Amino acid sequence: MSLSEQLQFELGQADNHLRAALAFAATSERTGVLVQLSELIQKLDMIERHDSLMDGLDDVIKECEKKNNEKD
User: Fold this and answer.
1) Distance between alpha carbon 63 and the CA centroid of its chain, in Å?
2) What is the C-alpha end-to-end distance of the chain, expressed in Å?
C-alpha cells in the first residue's frame, strides 16, 4: 500500500520547509542545529524509501504466492 497522495504532498512540503530552514541556519546557527535539521530531512526521505521498499516486497511476495498456487 503506497503512501496516500495527501501524505506524499505533506511530506514534500515538510521537506521543502526543512531544507529552507537548513539553508538559512547554515549562515547563522550552531552546528548542532544544522545536524538536527539534516537528520529530520533524512528521516523524511527514509519514510518514502521505506514505503517504496515495502511495496516492492509486497509485489515479490504476491508473485511467489502466485507461482506456488500455479504449481498446485
Assistant:
1) 25
2) 28
pTM exceeds 0.85, yes or no: no
Query: How would you class 25 by CB atoms within 10 Å of its CB: exposed for 0-12, middle for 13-18, buried for 19 or more?
Result: middle
pLDDT tens figures, 41-68: 999 999 989 998 999 999 999 999 998 9
Give pLDDT, residue 2: 83
Spatial distance between the Cα atoms of 51 and 1, rounded to a whole number of angstroms? 8
Taking the C-alpha atoms of residue 40 and residue 19, their distance in angstroms, rounded to an integer, is 10
List the domain boundaries for the chain.
5-71
